[in-house]
Structure formats: structure tokens, C-alpha cells
Write a structure and sequence with these properties.
By secondary structure, this protein is mostly beta strands. The chain is built from no helices and eleven strands. Strands 2, 4, 5, 6, 9, 10 and 11 form a seven-stranded mixed β-sheet that branches. Strands 1-3-8-7 form a four-stranded antiparallel β-sheet, with no helix packed on it.
Length: 116
């Protein structure tokens, strides 16, 4: 089992930056990959970015060039550096982990609000 706790959300002006953190605990050695998802009001939850155990990353087209996903294994923490934020980035951001046998775990989410 894995427990995920997000932090770092808040209100920021357009063009600004935020860094989200996701602290993982539990059976972290069995995590296959981790990622960030977001869900805006009235919209489906969408994948923002993920990183594999081997360090391969993937980003949604809407955030390419602006967001960077990374992981600090020593601190058991996943990060999402968000630059050049836009109002359309406003959403609840969720940390996600998948285990090497296919199980999925989710954090509680952290609100990101970008003003015009």
C-alpha cells in the first residue's frame, strides 16, 4: 500500500510559477511510475505528466514546455514545477502512483488557481 499527500497548491497570477509536491510513504519500492493528473470544474480528469522508474517523462500537449515532472527518490517525493501558468491551468491536481502489479493509488488533491 502507498499513501500519497500533495502540497504546494494555491493562488497565483497568470505567468507565475508554483511547485507541487507529493510525499509518498508505504511500499514505495514497488512503485512502477508516478504522475500528476488534474480535474477542472465540469471537466474530466486528465493526465498532466508522468515519470517512469527509468526516468522517462511524458507530458500533455497543453503543458509541454511549461511544466516539469521530477522525482527525488531520497526524499520519496514527486514534484511538478509549473511555470508560465495560465488561467486554464486552474484545477485540482492529484498525485498518482501505479504499482508494478498494476494497482493504483491517489492523493487527496491540491487546488491550483491561476488568476487572469
Amino acid at each position: 500500500q502507498v499513501h500519497l499527500v500533495e502540497s504546494g497548491g494555491g493562488l497565483v497570477q497568470g505567468g507565475g510559477s508554483l511547485r507541487l509536491s507529493c510525499a509518498a510513504s508505504g511500499n514505495i519500492l514497488s512503485i512502477n511510475q508516478m504522475g500528476w493528473y488534474r480535474q477542472a470544474p465540469g471537466k474530466q480528469r486528465e493526465l498532466v505528466a508522468f515519470i517512469t522508474s527509468g526516468g522517462i517523462t511524458n507530458y500533455a500537449d497543453s503543458v509541454k514546455g511549461r511544466f516539469t515532472i521530477s522525482r527525488d527518490n531520497a526524499k520519496n517525493t514527486l514534484y511538478l514545477q509549473m511555470n508560465s501558468l495560465k488561467p486554464e491551468d486552474t484545477a485540482v491536481y492529484y498525485c498518482h502512483a501505479s504499482m508494478n502489479w498494476g494497482s493504483n493509488y491517489w492523493g487527496q488533491g491540491t487546488q491550483v488557481t491561476v488568476s487572469s
